[in-house]
Amino acid sequence: MNNNTQAKGVIAWFACNPVAANLLMVLILVAGAFAVYHARIESFPSIPPTSITVSVSYDSGSASSAEEGVALKIENALQGVEGIKSLSSTSTGDDVTVTITKLSNYTLDALYQDVKTKVDSISDLPSSAKKPVITRQLELEDVISINLYGDIDQGVIQNYTDDLRLKLLASPKIQKVDYIGRRDEEIVIEVDEGKLIEHQLTLETVANQIAAESLNQTGGQLKSNQGTLILKAEQQKYSAHQYADLPIKHMTNGHVLLLSDIAEVKEQYADNSARTYYEGHASTGLTVKMYGKSNINDVARTVRDITNTYQATLPPDIQITLWNDQSEPIKSRLSLLLDNSLQGIFLVILLLALFLNIRVAFWVGIGLPVTFGGAMVLMGDSFWGLTLNELTTFGFIMALGIVVDDAVVIGESIYEHREKHGASLQSTISGAQKVATPTTFGVLTTMVAFMSMSLIEGELGKIFAQFALAAAFCLFFSLVESKLILPAHLAHVRMDSRAKSGLPLLWNKLQQRVLLMLKYFTFHIYKPCLKKVLDYRYAVVCVFLSLFVLIAGTLVTGKLKTVFFPEISTDNITIDLAFQEDAGFGLVLSETARVESIANQLSQQLTEEFGLLTPPIQSVLTDVSEQSAQLIIGLSSNDERPFSAAYVAKEWQSLVPTLEGIDSAIFAADMITDKAISIELRSKDKETIEQAGRNLTTYLSNIDGVFGIKGTLSQAQTQIDINVNPLGQSLGLTTSNLLQQLNFAYQGYEVQSFQKGEHEVKVKIQYPEERRKSIADLNYAKIRLSDGKVVPLTSVADISTRYVSKNIERIDGERVNVITADVDKETTSPDQVFLRLENTVFKELKDNYRDLQIVISGQQKEQEEISNSFYSVFTIALIGIYALLAIPLKSYFQPVLIMCTIPFGIIGALLGHLIQGIPMSILSLFGILALTGVVVNDSLLLISRFNTMRAGNFDSRQAIIEAGTGRLRAIILTSATTYFGLVPLLSETSPQSQFLIPAATSMGYGILFATAITLILVPALVMIQEDAKQIGSKLMSYLFNNGQEAQQHEI
């Protein structure tokens, strides 16, 4: 082949035009730097919104009334609306929330308009129900939280919190700020019932009089010679003192009856049974959120600057603190990426410098910035619109060791060619072109494996698509760099690496020693071993199959544990306390304080036990409501303590005794907050789901390792049923009139409301609190008849009590009882629990309750969706890989032979999990899916060399031996660079790295195991293929010859 022929092609053109190659490199680097500068950064990739919420505030007093009066009417109105995937509702005594989830092929805006039209057309909602509020789900992400706290009046803290919130919202970078623990103010008018009777008044008449005297109202305009005059009365009252002076009735003696004469007027908080504390002090907080297009680092930095400036204006008895900063994890991840990249580049260059020329190693390693820069360009808003987040940076780290593979092979081939044929431009072009086809298709197979992840269904599938895309973009630019830029650089590299003195001389000696060792290994160890492998090829295949069965068996026997999502420790611990219905608020407060006190004791104990400089528990945020409490514990950074958050949570839980009045106490220190067990019991019959729920709860409580069992219908409250008796009916009372009087007296009646700054203050009228504390108070209640007379409630109505659900949930037109529970993964697994349920109690429930539907939801549903689609996606990936192998090999069977390495690569991944001591999880499967595209690359190089040797008149045995020894260095280098690129990540102990390790383990160990397969098993399979060809040829020859003889015999 002459020089002109060899110089054809895009590789030759760029090698001959180094200016073009350098300009391309600079263009990619500059564009990449620009993309990095303008990149949006977020903690976790946001999922496109898929739902619409209809909220109706309805003070009905019971969940069943809210369901009947509001939820069912909204559900009926939405029947038949196109684009709805599912419809669920939750009804309580205070409100109704209906959630509509859209189909994937329907736009949220179109569905919103259809839902709004239907809901706005409902005309028969209860008169006391507020107007439905319809909202679209937004792409919101928490950025950082702020708490102001101190031993000072709550109202003072809230005023400063309001002020800080306004300052934050004044910044153009901050779009949304929500409150934490802010208590709404209200004015309460507690009327003395005796005074009402004395002055012949009712609550309703008093309320009407207040509304008539406290208002701002325009009376029109008066046009005069001096101009237009506005007639207006500004008599709105804004304080308890002002309301107390309102006139209620003018007496016949001329005396004016004031509101203060018949009632006590006071200012208080709307929910007296709600408290928020930070470090034991009264507190109010803010959570700053951002929309999808914002940069989390910019937002967090702005919040810190404004907060630090505002802190200087606070009085000394109010402190301020920042916590839950979500920009920190992504900073750690980016720092981890940078550290791993630098370490990976160092290890890759070191390996290449040992086996190749150090200048070749440098130019191969320098391709990494080009690769990552190009990937950042494709991730930008001008193309795919991806952000820098925990998943895309994960994709970069995973790609780190893979992207240099084709550059290593190209560099090794050019190095080998220039050693044999001289350091000329033509040698460089020939070396690059020699392996261009297998390396190109090798990269494409890896891209197919990564890109196939975007087809996996479920929310996790959408999330991990970003990781896959980031890795695929890196691979694409590694292809560009290795084929167009690298040859131009290597064409001008001096191959003479002789040094006369100093460190270069020592390095040359080390390199020579390594090359001699590699040569010795190739021809004195590997080659003889390969010959034996070929001699006993069937036995070798049997050994590998036995190894496959042995290691795969660890999954069946349970020696290698499996979980859906690994427990990933965080720097926070959350404790949720739920108390029984009869537990008073004082008991809830005292028991919660007891738990917090134990946390402080534990912190001191751990500090002394481990000799820590910093206490492990840094902060405690406590949120207490009427019958529940939540404590969020902030821990010191991971490098300041030698134990995980899970360890602290377990120690804390062991120290907390059984609390008085407690219903459940759940300690969580995991990034994944969804319940491991979530089962929906659906039926149109309420009794069915209640009884089935009790049966299922009982069964779950008897399974070791299952705890925190709850059902949505198990949260009950006492309901008082009041029915007008015959005497009441004879006196003209109706159920409606009776309940209205009781509702005004005990629930209160909202007279009016007014604005105080940004917040609404409600004015309510009701009986004194001491008259509304117990059921016994009803015995003294008075009912007013139509003629103005007053009679005892007990004389005109029958009173009884019963327990009812606090909330009622419905899904797709049926009532549902959702049973949830957590699982101790050291004792059992969700899969094992569900297997037991399927074989036992589920069958019993279906037999006993014909109308019952059992639907798995939560984590397990997500797991089923992913598992079902994973096998389909895996099949698609295998088909794509097969096609990309068949094209360059021009064979139907050889791709199958190469793809035999995939199962054994998976065995390497399983072995890696056993060595690392981590369970198999969904993240491990994603690593395995990526692995399928990587493990075939070395085998493709080997088979390509084998085909070349066969074309050069080598017999099969000699050709595979020459291919194995000739490609040994390239195979070892690509596998080593891929593995060592992941070594820094595999050895990480920080919480941020735990998220990445399962997939990295699958990739790293799978590659190492696949190297042995490529060098040993593939040659054996090649020879077995050749045996099959010979047998087939002999069989065809025999059949053909016998056929000819029979034909001649007939003649």
Descriptive account of the structure:
By secondary structure, this protein is an alpha+beta fold. Helix content is 55%, strand content 20%. It is built from 36 helices and 30 strands. Helix 14 crosses helix 19, helix 16 (405-421) packs parallel to helix 19 and helix 21 crosses helix 36. The longest helix has 54 residues, at 997-1050. The protein is elongated, with a radius of gyration of 37 Å. It starts with a helix and ends with a helix. The model is unreliable at 1-6 (pLDDT under 50).
CATH fourth-tier homologous superfamily of one domain: Multidrug efflux transporter AcrB transmembrane domain
- Identify the CATH architecture of one domain: Up-down Bundle
Largest sheet: 9 strands, antiparallel
What is the end-to-end distance?
53 Å
**Number of H- or I-type helical stretches:** 36
What oligomeric arrangement do these chains adopt? single chain
Strand content: 15-25%
Number of extended strands: 30
Average predicted local confidence, pLDDT: 83
Structural class: alpha+beta
Determine Rg (CA atoms, Å): 37 Å
What CATH calls the topology of one domain is Multidrug efflux transporter AcrB transmembrane fold
The helicity comes to 40-55%
Low-confidence stretches: 1-6
Taken from the alpha-carbon principal axes, the silhouette is: elongated
CATH class of one domain: Mainly Alpha
Organism: Vibrio fortis
GO cellular component, one term: plasma membrane
GO molecular function: xenobiotic transmembrane transporter activity
Protein name: Multidrug transporter
